[in-house]
């Protein structure tokens, strides 16, 4: 995946700061204090026992400190239980989530489970912090199952404080090719992959934070005139090849474009800084937050710092010496960037890969 060129010369619409990663990841304790409640519509749901979900979550969290790639060895029935329990929670909330700060926003994870745990160690394990993830939990990395299962556990346990959007890889047509299907088939069954596909078809595609920060996985759409159009999208559904939902998951900003142009991915569009400025002004928004592209520092600005690309998988695929980024939005909508540097071992591995490729 290509990354957009930085565009950080203009003044940001809100105060932005960067928080460097601590020298070493500490053993952060899991929190017991609930944070502020988000605006959702799950209160009418029945409340079955949380014990099996908590048990699964604890087994996943017990992998903290284990060598990367250590498997959780959940049973297929346990994973199916997670999928069964999360589906009605997702469908009870809207396609355009209306959220409140404070919260942390994370970009692509792509099966890098060890790095997901590092993000939580740094940002605070739920429910100490509220979270919004922007999609692409599966494919490419080696532990898509552990990654998506932990995210689902947290969604079930804290439905009003933990939110997961759909990325373009949460689609059967994509993750059939890029790794998740093979991981499900190798470790469990094709049937389990189909169960996950049903869950992915229920994920929301966008979120707005305090009516000022609009978030999605990909980007804007030439069809998007009113935010209500997002809320009106039908679920459950596959990701279509064209149209509003496709663009929200697939489009990209491009510094070399004014207006709209074809996307080199062969799907959706690219859009220019002029499109971002006009959209934000029309809808009285301050910032667009999206993921979908690898960026060297974990985040990268576009359109005079009015759009930011966020990528949360450091040392992506063991081939990029990139950092992972996470945005912390406080109660006043001030945004700071928390950065996960690649581990020294991962960085050395990436350097060897690059040297081998050059040879």
UniProtKB/TrEMBL annotation:
Its cofactor is: Mn(2+)
Q: Which InterPro entries match?
A: Calcineurin-like_PHP, Metallo-depent_PP-like, PP1_catalytic_subunit, Ser/Thr-sp_prot-phosphatase, STPPase_N
- Provide the residue span(s) of the region labelled Disordered: 1-50
Which SMART domains does the entry link to?
A: PP2Ac
Write down the Gene3D superfamilies for this protein, in alphabetical order. Answer: 3.60.21.10
Q: Where is the Serine/threonine specific protein phosphatases domain?
A: 165-170
Which top EC class is given? hydrolase
Q: Which UniProt keywords apply?
A: Hydrolase, Manganese, Metal-binding, Protein phosphatase
The cross-references to PANTHER family, in alphabetical order and at most eight, read: SERINE/THREONINE PROTEIN PHOSPHATASE, SERINE_THREONINE-PROTEIN PHOSPHATASE
* Name assigned to this protein: Serine/threonine-protein phosphatase
Please report the organism this UniProt entry assigns to the protein: Skeletonema marinoi
